[in-house]
Structures are given as structure tokens and as C-alpha cells.
Amino acid sequence: MSDVALDDRGRLTLPKEVRERYGDRYHVVQLPDGVKLVPVANDPLEALREEFADIEKSADDLRDEAREASLDEAGR
User: Fold this and answer.
1) Dihedral over Cα of 12, 38, 2, 32: its sign
2) Which fold has domain 1-40?
3) Which member of 3, 22, 36, 68 lies 3.0 to 4.6 Å from 29 by CB, making a disulfide possible if both were Cys?
4) Chain-wide mean pLDDT for the chain?
């Protein structure tokens, strides 16, 4: 972790190791006690495919299971 400061134009420069690890694009999330930088993938769709590559069920199967679990929790 390192400290960084805004320049006179309000820009923030991230350390090279952070940019190399997470990339050059970030979504800024405002929180009650500060801000969070969330890296944005160059190709968000490809990033999602990689994230869920090990899921063997279809979206319909996952949706059906979630619906059943919700109904069970609600006490049908």
C-alpha cells in the first residue's frame, strides 16, 4: 500500500505496480467513508466469461435453482 496525492489539477497518479496489475481504467465508487477504485476490464464480456468458465450449469438451470431456493426461504 502506498500514499498518493492529487496534483493541482485534481488528478491522481497510481503507482506503476498498481497500473501493471489492475490496468488503466477504473470505476470510482463513492462510499460513506471514502472512495473505492474498481478496475474495469478492457473487454468486460470476456472478463465475465473467464470468471464463470468453471460453471457447468446453464443460465436457465441456475435461474431455476435460485427461484426454488427463494421460494423455499419464503416458506412457499
Assistant:
1) positive
2) Pemi-like Protein 1; Chain: D (2.10.260)
3) 36
4) 90
Q: For residue 10, what are the CA distances in angstroms to 7, 13, 34, 51? A: 5, 10, 16, 34
Contact 1, 16 (CB under 8 A): no
Q: What are the cell numbers at 54?
A: 468453471
- The residue type at 37: L
* Bridge partners, residue 30, by sequence: 35
Check pLDDT > 80 for residue 76.
no
Q: Are 27 and 38 in contact (CB under 8 A)?
A: yes
